[in-house]
Amino acid sequence: MDEEQENVSTKVASIDPEKILSYIRKKDRKALLTVFEIVPNIDIAEAVNDFEPADLLYIFRAVPSEITADFFDELSSDAKEALIKAMTDKELVEIINEQYADDVADTVNELPANLASRVLRAASKDMRKDINQLLQYAEGTAGSLMTTEYLEFIDTAKVSKVIEEIRSKGKDAETVYTIFVRNAKREFVGTAGLDDLIFAKPDETLGDIMNRDVVSCYTATDQEEVAKMFRRYDLNAMAVLNADSRLVGVITIDDVMDVIVEEQQEDLAHLTNMSASDKPYMELSAWSNAKKCIPWLIALLILGTFTTLVLDRIEKSHIFTLLPMLIAFVPTLMDTGGNAGAQTTGLMIRGLAVDDFGPKDVLKVLWKEFKSALIIAGIVASFAFLWITMEQYTGIVNDAESFPGVNIWAGNCWNLDFFGHTMKNSALISITMGIAVLFSKVIGTLLPLGAAAIKKDPALLSQPMLTTIMDVATLCIYLVMAMAFFPHFA
Amino acid sequence: MDEEQENVSTKVASIDPEKILSYIRKKDRKALLTVFEIVPNIDIAEAVNDFEPADLLYIFRAVPSEITADFFDELSSDAKEALIKAMTDKELVEIINEQYADDVADTVNELPANLASRVLRAASKDMRKDINQLLQYAEGTAGSLMTTEYLEFIDTAKVSKVIEEIRSKGKDAETVYTIFVRNAKREFVGTAGLDDLIFAKPDETLGDIMNRDVVSCYTATDQEEVAKMFRRYDLNAMAVLNADSRLVGVITIDDVMDVIVEEQQEDLAHLTNMSASDKPYMELSAWSNAKKCIPWLIALLILGTFTTLVLDRIEKSHIFTLLPMLIAFVPTLMDTGGNAGAQTTGLMIRGLAVDDFGPKDVLKVLWKEFKSALIIAGIVASFAFLWITMEQYTGIVNDAESFPGVNIWAGNCWNLDFFGHTMKNSALISITMGIAVLFSKVIGTLLPLGAAAIKKDPALLSQPMLTTIMDVATLCIYLVMAMAFFPHFA
Fold first, then answer.
1. In chain A, which residues have their Cβ closer than 8 Å to the Cβ of B293?
2. pTM above 0.80?
3. ipTM given for this complex
4. CA proximity to B252, closest of B181, B198, B178, B186
5. H or E segment to which residue A238 belongs
6. Rg of the Cα trace of chain B?
7. Are B195 and A199 a contacting pair at CB < 8 A?
8. How far lies B102's CA from each of A230, B54, B106, B226, B409, in Å?
9. How far is CA A87 from CA A28, A82, B103, in A?
10. What is the pLDDT of residues A415-437, one digit of tens each?
11. Beta bridge pairs of residue B191
12. What does the alpha-carbon distance between residue B224 and residue B289 come to, in Å, rounded to a whole number?
């Protein structure tokens, strides 16, 4: 083991795969045990994921199963599969029954059918019942997140009695820090922290010391909702109830952290027009990566047809044929409109994700965005006016056809005709930009809030729709404004 | 209190502000106490945030400070300010010293100077020392996240002795579930769970039962790094050390959840070309919202100058003047290139955020993305070929000038000349698109990984740079390909 750390900002005992392999080859059981004592399971798992099944198996034979059960859970799906194939029935029974039912249920979900049924056969009767129960809940619900191993006591139980029971059987529960309390009707009524028990007098009852201001959810509650409650109420564990208000499971905070990250990664994926992946990047094949990109690119390509259609007509309109320079500003106008809308869509997606507001606040939010859109449109359009004038004077764009020799080096920038014309171009483009920004912020507010109101993922639909709507809208605004500015050309 | 819940998916006792106000007006102390017993603090705080200071103050006078201390911390900054102004010195002393030093430090950070110093004067000498210590750490470091109230014992302490001490003074610690263990040299050596103590024999020492495979960080460690470790190692609390490996603070999981959300919200903001906000959306004024948008829009507008410059030249080139239809596809080409790149940038930002890979894996990641980019470019370009041919046949774009009466209704779609020309256009555009997708995926990989390598936020710079680079690159590819396809027009 190499205690040197590569990262100075954190302190973790690191481990070299070669060293572990050499312990295995030398059958050095003692050294392996020391590794498990000093190095966290996830780090050992990452070091050995690519080992041969026989080498992996040796670890499980050399180290007691109460230590390797958690370690097993951290291995990659491939390593788990290889191990399950290689283990004897007896070994499998040991390793499976040391784990928590929800972890085994997750493993079963990932395995091919023949191995899954091997795992289920290895599970004890009680655990098999729990696993089958857990496998029934739809992905993304509280039921699929919860564990069935928790501590539940009746509210009339004495503190001393509870501590004694925890001592004798607590090790099987996934969290012993929160004790769940039910009444005589088997309804969930409150929780007590392990610390509350320690601070309490031995002859107080759970009913005396429990917290009654607890929050709970149902098996069908969306996992995103669960995550929001954990954050809002600073929970460590939450009760999951069935329709009769009876406790059927418990969600612990470590699973919720993963949900928060997963949900936000999904938002991020949709915001960049991709399908989300539940696999780590490095485990994705080139083809499965491509599959998540292609449908979106093709859908956007098809939506882009509207833009092509409109631009083709505009470009050939009399006015834009006479003023071809105006075409050069089309991407800038589209980009600015699109960017302004994307900012607002992003704000909406973030606000909805952390519950700053909901779809019902649409008017309040719209008014807020409209006010700031007015400020933004005003300032950006004013800047654009100056910048576009500069672009024309310096010849970055060159209105060579209607005004030959227009650029600054040609020495005719004080030509009054040119001066007036330049200003008119700048005004046209910057006013179009201002209107596009305003419009785009309004659409950028309405699309995600609308999606949320009909219970769709606000990030999933808003972004591609916004791009298409804004591209077409910007072009139309541009055409109408150009006709207003240059009526004699139209 | 109204036990009816508006949201069927979760179960929380809800509270009506009017009811609380009526209890205050009636000076019904008992009803108020019941509210605090049944309703979570954050919900009460949200109900009363807008009350008059005198009404708020009554709550603090009616309800004991050990209950209201946590409630105070959940109030909005405005409510806190009003209360601190209205409270007597004695009341302030009580409420401040019931809180945790890190929460008070956060409050002090938000208050105007005169109120901040009032709070510091109210704090006990020990707490003042802790607060001043905490205020020294830079925002975003482990030091600024940590609490100074935790349980630390020497490794030779007997379990029975430790439990006894926790019972007598544990209430002051922010987490009693994790006990931190030091050796005789005052170095941090491990942790023990409260459950480990309960399961242990009374005469075992902490050294016998503690976990030695623990991870820790330093006061200067970045909070994003801390959050990653909590997730990776499923921690509930983590030790923060000074340069001498001595424990100086502890970070608890509830603070880490907020960091995870904060960091991901920041990524999301930068991905939509905005500055991140640390205030909830509803508390932002129109002007402060606008300020977060405007600099980005203007920067992108300036960067867009390159696009305008290139497009202006291309559009007036001989070849595009002869084939004006090709201009109509410029937005589609730019959008597809931009979208393909944004997908990859998004993937990189997500992968970096959850540590799927780091900047050092650039070659492996680049190769992976290149392989899937080849697949994507091939499929998208093939589809584009068919789609663009269709667009021409149906007259969505209309090459009226070079080939009069080109569209399907004009009945000349079998004209061989037109057929060949149409195919040639489609080939030109789809091949340009394929190359743009490939190029954009490569740039989309390199920009965020490059930013991460120089320790910059990968989302901050990548997105605007990518848009500009891709717009200009796509136009250049288009021009070169057009010259290759129509050499006689060039």
1. 340, 343, 372, 376
2. no
3. 0.78
4. B178
5. strand A237-241
6. 32
7. no
8. 20, 27, 6, 17, 75
9. 20, 9, 51
10. 556 677 788 889 999 999 999 99
11. B180, B211
12. 25
